[in-house]
Amino acid sequence: MKHKGRFGQFGGFYVPEVLIPALEEIEDAFYRFKDDPKFAAELDNLYKNYAGRPTPLYFAQRFSKHVGFNVYIKREDLLHGGAHKVNNTLGQCLLAKYMNKTKIIAETGAGQHGLATSMTAALLGLEAKIFMGALDVKRQSVNVHKMRLCGAEVCPVSGGTGTLKDAINDALRYWTANITDTFYVFGSVCGPHPFPTIVKHFQTPIGIEARSQSINTIGRLPDIITACVGGGSNSIGLFSGFMDDKDVRIVGVEPAGRGLDTTEHAATLAVGKIGVFHGAKSYLLQDDVGQVHETESISAGLDYPAVGPEHCQLKDSGRAEYTAVNDEQVLDAFGIFTKLEGILPALESSHAIAWLITQKGVLPSETNVILNLSGRGDKDVDIVEQNRQM
Ligand SMILES: Cc1ncc(COP(=O)(O)O)c(C=O)c1O
Predict the structure, then answer these.
(1) Which of 2, 29, 193, 365 is the most buried (most CB within 10 A)?
(2) Same structural domain for residues 135 and 266?
(3) How far is it, in rounded angstroms, from Cα 162 to Cα 253?
């Protein structure tokens, strides 16, 4: 297992010894069941009839006119729960069930992974405990109510900045003390091996569908694919479908908070330095002595100082490019897209929309872009309203 889970120099599993058997148990079960016909058929049925896959690829006509090139939207916002997170929770919770685990834990930032885990736990009869930073409990309160209605216990985490990294800290701490009967449903393609590999696997339907829909709808592959990058799961799901299509340009969009020139507290791939965090080696926002920086982004789901190891490798190899937009651009993008398309995008997804707006007058009019709309923005309406009044 020592060489597994590496993406070039990134990834790995830098964890306390007590967690290694639990990670190995999950890895073994993943490889045993992922291609098992019964498991695959059960998951496929849940994807189709519970979550709502395949999601449409929709031509955003008025937004395309606004930016001056063709924008196609992969509608992950239409999935049950309102985000791509359910792809992963269905896969991991089913795996937990096949492993005869009865209890699951998860961390959450925007509340979308916590909600997806809570829904899936209710569906499969599992007991769920969700760790969530105290700041995020406040700014994503609607999702907290929904999680509790599904029967999950929400554990607010007041340490640190009360955001995603603190929720993961507490979840890992709890897991260390409860590994025998508890499965940790990790929410993104980061953390220790095997999570980056497992979460990617369960998010690959996004890219597989988008590639064949592109051929059917546009008549060819897109010129550019783009998605927001927090830990990196919705983006890796989309990117994975096009990795070998060398002519397809891949663009990941990170949060720059109040702006790259004013802060070092966001845009991990742009300004981070290599370090180890939450069990994996990746780019990381840290100071000169390795102390992890506090992050600040208007979107709770992107408020994280590290990033998935595969993204680090894609950046270094040059296969994907990464850029960042600030909170103000994100709020503008949210407003413009909603008014032109009648779709409220999640603030996370609005980062990718904001980058497209910066490409107005830059990309030729015949350019075809696929944008992954990772989630819907209902959860963000209050934040947008508060910022409008400021
Ligand atoms: C709607 C939405 N998009 C994107 C993200 C970021 O996560 P990831 O980078 O793993 O897709 C989140 C995280 O909570 C989210 O809720």
Answers:
(1) 193
(2) no
(3) 24
